[in-house]
Fold these 2 entries.
Entry 1:
Amino acid sequence: DADVTQTPRNRITKTGKRIMLECSQTKGHDRMYWYRQDPGLGLRLIYYSFDVKDINKGEISDGYSVSRQAQAKFSLSLESAIPNQTALYFCATSDPGQELYGYTFGSGTRLTVV
Amino acid sequence: GENVEQHPSTLSVQEGDSAVIKCTYSDSASNYFPWYKQELGKGPQLIIDIRSNVGEKKDQRIAVTLNKTAKHFSLHITETQPEDSAVYFCAASLMNYGGATNKLIFGTGTLLAVQP
């Protein structure tokens, strides 16, 4: 099993619908992140959580919300999806004090809003 | 906050040639500069990194250089192979042990194509 699992892998949804992207990890890491990838814009940080009780906005949090249900689970929600939220979404984890060993990324969720 | 610029956006080289990807960062306090490789259909993976107290680091065919004064850092791949074809991202951060600022800000990515 993958260390960081994202579900679904692909999703097509309609404008105005609520959608949740889920991330679970078996790394035992306290810190989790949601990034969005767009062509030409790279990876942009949406939200991050340094522990279950800690949630922080990233560069582009508008239109998104998150929930840290447990150390191992971090969900990203689009309350009312719009077409410009079409992108590839990545969840990542890190171990505090071990970030110099890198983040562990999931395989991504490709979201299309029509 | 930190801002990272990356060039070029696409790079095509012949197998065996060298490839260089360059990044600049804005926050002089940043002290950690990793490079990630993203293969098709996968998430990014760390390939090499450098800290601000070091000017150059090598790992087999890849190397990273850092110029703190100019706030530039670069990835160098020598003797490129087709399996080096991927998207490469640079990133920057102020990293401290367990620190509250430990979040990576990524560049815009470079699509490297190695032609056989």
Entry 2:
Amino acid sequence: GAGVSQSPSNKVTEKGKDVELRCDPISGHTALYWYRQSLGQGLEFLIYFQGNSAPDKSGLPSDRFSAERTGGSVSTLTIQRTQQEDSAVYLCASSLAQGSSPLHFGNGTRLTVT
Amino acid sequence: QKEVEQNSGPLSVPEGAIASLNCTYSDRGSQSFFWYRQYSGKSPELIMFIYSNGDKEDGRFTAQLNKASQYVSLLIRDSQPSDSATYLCAGDTGRRALTFGSGTRLQVQP
């Protein structure tokens, strides 16, 4: 596709359940980012992948959060034992390279933990 | 101190006026800056990027960068109601991923 694709667009889950969020970046983009945005707030950095380098996990809020990127393309963000404070929009973005290249965002996954 | 700071607003301007959005950053080593527009319920979309000191113009938008003062701004000329949105400033603050400010909400009054 032409843009960053995220699925599902909406996810409602019960507290304590695990969820997986998927991101398919723009073809040819080597950098992939996950951000989180709570209602009315700014973007909170979660994790960053660049090519075959070790990911920058410095933004993950707890060990319940993990992400992987398979084959340098599709990425999955996993949240285990979800809590109500995990409710937010999870945004994925990709870029040609790190740092100076603009990010292109997907439409996000709205996660609601009940 | 936050790495990228913005006034949350709202900034209210009348239709046709110039809207001035400001952003400061703490890392003197930052080289690249981006302005994104985010409509309510939508994902951010890139408006402009700027790497060099001075002004960069694109249509009704002008980005200004002053590295000595660690200051980035976005001017929107002839503001339209459709420009009403939250504007996010982002910079490469030494982390490998861009750091975003919390955004400034702009309201253009018809």
